[in-house]
């Protein structure tokens, strides 16, 4: 009997039959990456660029997620996309260039986490991994799958410790890792643990039968509490490996710096130092690059400019004598000579004239002229 037929029979025979045969399904695990979010916390960068396509060390963030899954033998990957999805298929195609098979499922309107996986149900006929498209982590997926198998769980959620759990969904477990309770963004008084959902979840396809089609639905707030109420097993896999959510400009910059400094196992800087320059980028005479500086391709930095701890994307022109500190500048920007930009986030194709001073904290939206 093929796996797909077996899954269809599961829903007919019920949950107990499914548990007895769970090991049959644990083979050739697939993955779905949820990339349909609007990326509002990363605006204005995400007004014209999908969050998963923002460059990390001059490669799209999504490329790291795909290669990480491939490391663990996961080669069938579904991309559940929505906002600004158009540029993603053009770049990644069918995935063959990266040694994987990519499938695309687009949302006409946001469906939530549960609705997104239900929308991809035709591809998820076996045990599958759900990956949040804004999380970068070194968590060992193979060890997580083995734990999932041994615990006979319907879902296994990776957990990671954070300093401030009130910003996330907290998960309480017993001593064996079985989930007891979910607390979404608890107050400081409600916090009993600093372990949060790390954005990696292994699920069994049985769960898809519990999600209504074509509606906005959350597995965190609706599906999982329903399963707990029925006393069915959800387990948590705790890990303290490198983990970061790139949802804000600050965290997005931190990931670039962390990779440069080797804080993750997934990247080795090819040369000493904290500066990375893309192809065909020109650095003028007397330019001073300080701290972690990452500049994309086809960018021109005028003589005497100072760039400190900043991310500069592709096709940017920076005028002579300009100063850029602790800032992120997107594709196609033009910055006039002797301007000063500090702690700013600048969207694509912005034009900043000569001798402009931007106040710290400025966010400049695409196509603006300052």
| CATH architecture field of the largest domain | Alpha-Beta Complex
Percent helix, as a range, is: 10-25%
The CATH topology annotation of the largest domain reads as Spore Coat Polysaccharide Biosynthesis Protein SpsA, Chain A
Mean pLDDT: 89
- What portion of residues belong to β-strands? 25-35%
Uncertain segments of ≥5 residues (pLDDT<50)? 1-27
* CATH class assignment of the largest domain: Alpha Beta
Seen as an oligomer or otherwise, the chain set is single chain
Q: Tell me the major beta sheet.
A: 9 strands, parallel
Basic shape: elongated
- According to CATH, the homologous superfamily of the largest domain is Spore Coat Polysaccharide Biosynthesis Protein SpsA, Chain A
Number of domains: 2
Number of helices: 9
Q: Separation of termini?
A: 65 Å
Task: Indicate the radius of gyration in whole angstroms.
Answer: 22 Å
Number of E-type strands = 27
Content-based structural category: alpha/beta
